Amino acid sequence: MKLYFLIFSLCFSSSVFSQTQDSTDFVNDTIAVPVGPVDSLPSVGKNSYGDLLHDDPAYNPKYPRWIPMVRVLSANVFNWAVARYLYKFDWAKVGVGDWKNNFKKGPVWDVDGFGINFIGHPHTGSIYHNVARSNGYSYWGSFPFALQGSLTWEYLGENERPSYNDLINTPISGMFLGEVFYRISSNLLDDRRRGRKRIFREVVAGLVSPTRALNRLTQGKMSRVTDREVYQKEPLNVTLSAGIHKVNNKVGKDNVFGTGQSNALLNLQLDYGDPFESRSRKPFDLFRFRIELSYGGDVTLLDMVNGYGLLAGKNFKEGRILGGLFQHYDYWRNSIFQVASIGFGGGLISRMPVARHSNLYSGIHLAIVPLAGNNTQFGPVNSEFRQYNFGGGLQAKIEETFNIGNWATIGFTGFYYWIHTYNGLPGNSLVGILKPTATVKLLKDLRLGFEHHIYHNDRFLSGNNNLHITRTEQKLFLQLFLEDKQRPGRYH
């Protein structure tokens, strides 16, 4: 039941705010309110595409700290009130005695389901993060507000003891998701527009980041018209794939190619920023984000969410290689296995010419994993409570794509996780995911693709039999590449 409440509350958690809307003057269907004389505005650097390297501070000022603090707190109060008085959940019946107990006994590892811990709480953290970002705070400057939201909810919002995993996952993964949503919405917004085009952009950006939309409404930015671009924008290229997903849901020798049930799939990949542009960089000037949905009898709806964002980096070898520190967020879940992790580590991204119109794109990452989860049983998940371990360790990723002219690609993506159990069945797990992929051009931006997905788990449990399983999937899909016309370039 907590999962259903969380889905409901995410839709409304940002609707209670305390800041009064700025005064504005209406002129027909738009508002023209310059922030100040154009000549007095500070100069903001631009990238090679002619876009701002930062949000223009003259139009996006940093508001006093108490404003995002109150907004984060009000969101939690609203969530609690809905749970307590509308849904009448027992865990929301909180009193002073529960607060004392929470502070006295401290946190534990909770027993909530995999989805609520590794998707629900990070999404809530993204709301806290975007409250701060929408009020002029940087990526790192928004972290205290995400932490505030997590702490106040865990210690004051429930009569259950706070949990270690939520205190880690909510602010850290929330920063990752929140920054992705903030950057995408910035690419959609254009305060120079008027009329229907402006309304369309505001609505779509609001769907991507509702928290930011509500802050823009109360700050007067939603109806403000400027004579210049005021938001940082980077190349945003979209790859959309749709097709058939065949899950071979048996393990071991019975896991035969192409024998599983067929399901529909929809995959979205966002490539933000140009890794081969030589420039100064700050957090999430570059990121890759993937999400995959599956529909069928033996799969979960949200099959995969993963990605990485650059925290700091530098180009070398005439811009053909980017080296840096990255933040990672991975979530895998289907009828057989569950794996999720957050990570921080180094990485290299390169593009090397091979022949005319051909190149080899590579990405290699190694990261420390402070928190991960992986399932302890295999087969359909029938309980909303824990059937997985909490742990941590290391993870590695490799992406290799050989672009053959303009007509085909072959390559693979690999993930490897070394997970030591913190809480759950004691021991270690080695989880590998390998995805060989090939695509062939059909039309200008339309391709036919095939992917073979191999999952392998070596589990070494203390006092129990070791476990070694392999399962496979196949995907046949049409792939549409949507290039940003103002910022051309294929980076994968």
Model description:
The chain is an alpha+beta fold and 492 residues long. The chain folds into two domains: 2-219, no CATH class; 236-482, monomeric porin ompg (Porin), CATH 2.40.160.40. The chain contains eight helices and 14 strands. It has helices at residues 2-12, 66-86, 96-105, 114-133, 143-156, 164-188, 195-208, 210-219; strands spanning 26-27, 30-31, 236-248, 261-272, 287-295, 302-316, 321-333, 338-355, 358-375, 388-404, 408-423, 427-441, 446-461, 467-482. Strand 12 and strand 13 (446-461) form a beta hairpin.
- Report the C-alpha radius of gyration, rounded: 23 Å
Terminal-residue CA separation: 41 Å
Q: Main sheet?
A: 12 strands, antiparallel, barrel
CATH class designation of the largest domain: Mainly Beta
> Secondary-structure element order, as H and E?
HEEHHHHHHHEEEEEEEEEEEE
CATH superfamily label of the largest domain: monomeric porin ompg
Shape category: globular
In the sheet with the most strands, the strands line up as 3-4-5-6-7-8-9-10-11-12-13-14
Beta content: 35-45%
Q: Indicate the mean pLDDT.
A: 86
In the residues, how many domains can be counted?
2
- The poorly predicted ranges are 1-42
Structural class: alpha+beta
Please provide the count of β strands.
Answer: 14
Count, helices? 8
